[in-house]
């Protein structure tokens, strides 16, 4: 059975003290939560990952990076490699977030290289994709999502997908307070699973976790997560408050 996942993308928030505080708060909240076939992941900034790993190693909380560089090492000022992440105990990475695509020019080609680097280094990947508002308004959202997946993921062998989690994040719903309705999320997730049936197999499609992301809050998580093809969420803003994030975890 595929896993349910609630992942918190902290983005460029929280210094070291705030990181420690939020993790402590989460651990306290999480004590009362029974996780049935569910995982909880947080993605702090690079500089706080090592601390986050050590603060969470006695808890159910797992730690992910928000990005990695595709090269092994070398003259890439300011970048962080898969090996550096592994060496501090991080083996999960978010790739393809819409903010990376929009502000850091991460094209499908670059994302393919990042995905390959992650796979070579035995990372689990949380791969993000999703349409812009104008794509949805012009009824192109299925086409856009299909090409984002085809261009980056569909050349991978089926064996790679045991370590890939998908995160459908319509760009118009990220940080805007506008959430896709539970039905819109279900419709897209079902479409995505269908693409995996076509490209690979029913078995693979059934095994892959598809998260929804975009303004998930304690008040709407339960309805979104109740849909059969929604296997959890990638949470931005609401992952920065221990109570909100753990309330979302409780909805899974
Ligand atoms: P949001 O962000 O929950 O603040 O909309 C989601 C994301 O960017 O992953």
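^ structure tokens above, recovered residues below v
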């Amino acid at each position: 059975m595929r896993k349910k996942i609630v992942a918190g993308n902290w983005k460029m928030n929280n210094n070291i003290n705030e990181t420690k505080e939020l993790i402590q708060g989460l651990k306290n909240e999480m004590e009362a939560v029974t996780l049935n076939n569910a995982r909880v992941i947080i993605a702090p900034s690079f500089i706080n990952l090592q601390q986050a790993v050590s603060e969470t190693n006695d808890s159910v909380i797992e730690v992910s990076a928000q990005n990695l560089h595709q090269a092994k090492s070398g003259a890439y000022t300011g970048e962080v490699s898969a090996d550096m992440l592994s060496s501090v105990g991080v083996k999960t990475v978010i790739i393809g977030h819409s903010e990376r695509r929009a502000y850091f020019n991460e094209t499908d080609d670059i994302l393919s290289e990042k995905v390959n680097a992650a796979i070579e280094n035995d990372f689990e990947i949380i791969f993000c994709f999703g349409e812009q508002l104008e794509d949805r308004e012009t009824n192109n959202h299925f086409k856009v999502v299909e090409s984002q997946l085809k261009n980056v993921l569909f050349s991978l062998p089926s064996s790679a997908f045991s370590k890939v989690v998908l995160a459908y994040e319509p760009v118009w719903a990220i940080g805007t307070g506008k959430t896709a309705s539970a039905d819109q999320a279900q419709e897209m997730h079902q479409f995505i699973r269908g693409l995996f049936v076509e490209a690979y197999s029913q078995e693979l499609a059934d095994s892959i976790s598809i998260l929804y992301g975009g303004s998930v809050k304690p008040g709407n998580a339960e309805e979104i997560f109740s849909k059969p093809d929604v296997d959890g969420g990638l949470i931005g803003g609401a992952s920065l408050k221990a109570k909100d994030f753990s309330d979302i975890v409780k909805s899974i």
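Residues 9, 169, 174-175, 213-216, 234-238 surround 2-phosphoglycolic acid (CB under 6 Å).
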